[in-house]
Specification:
By secondary structure, this protein is an alpha+beta fold. The protein has one domain: Peptide Methionine Sulfoxide Reductase, Chain A, CATH 3.30.1060.10. Helix content is 35%, strand content 18%. It has a six-stranded mixed sheet with strand order 7-6-1-3-2-8, with helices on one face. The protein is globular and about 40 Å long.
Length: 224
């Protein structure tokens, strides 16, 4: 199995949690379910499956978080933002393809709303104030981005970010990009369900399992 060089070194060197305090602190960092004071909580009203595409660091952790949300039927890891010819892990790892590691979420909009997914995205899935990085991973492929599929998703996402900013929910500026979804390419098979397949890998234990635990604690009504 191939993983990029930084992750490979991280997995080799971080067998003990005490050796990874910085990364562990970053992965456990979160805010208490960021709900802007000026935005009322939305409830699902529409029916039928919809899709959302988010990017925010290594797709292993994002996939693991959103797979645990009620109303989500499928999550895949992939690449978005670049061209088909560079939609592979080796190329994306160079950081110059335009791609971001992303996840495609299929959800039943009668059970969970797009805004509820955004709430999880900002609260526990990643740190939206880190520019072109998440925790131990650096590069534009790890940027924070919302790839909206239609004008409604764009409006909801931008309004949500504006309200988070106005209410100063985060101590630093939000750097999340809100861009149109032009393409999404599913990643190689060995990236799918990565946490499930490698639950004891050091990188997963330090960076991704805490996110799933934070989801369970902060969103018990959404967690499954």
């Amino acid at each position: 199995m191939y993983i990029n060089s930084f992750k490979f070194l991280f997995v080799l060197l971080c067998g003990a949690a005490t050796a990874c305090n910085v990364a562990e602190s970053s992965s456990k960092r979160g805010v208490a379910a960021p709900t802007p004071k000026t935005v009322a909580a939305t409830v699902p009203t529409s029916k039928g499956d919809q899709t959302a595409v988010f990017a925010g660091g290594c797709f292993w952790g994002l996939e693991a978080v959103f797979e645990h949300i009620k109303g989500v039927s499928n999550v895949t890891s992939g690449y978005s933002g670049g061209e088909a010819k560079t939609a592979n892990y080796d190329a994306v790892g160079d950081g110059d393809t335009g791609h971001a590691e992303a996840v495609k979420i299929t959800f039943d909009s009668s059970k969970v709303s797009y805004e509820q997914l955004l709430k999880v995205f900002f609260a526990v899935a990643h740190d939206p104030t880190e520019l072109n990085r998440q925790g131990p991973d650096t590069g534009t492929q790890y940027r924070s981005a919302i790839f909206y599929a239609n004008d409604e998703q764009k409006r909801i996402a931008q309004t949500y970010i504006d309200k988070l900013t106005a209410d100063k929910v985060f101590p630093k500026p939000i750097v999340t990009q809100v861009v149109a979804l032009e393409n999404y390419y599913q990643a190689e098979d060995y990236h799918q369900d990565y946490l499930v397949q490698h639950p004891n890998q050091s990188y997963i234990v330090v960076n991704d399992k805490p996110k799933v635990e934070n989801l369970r604690k902060q969103f018990p009504d959404l967690y499954q």
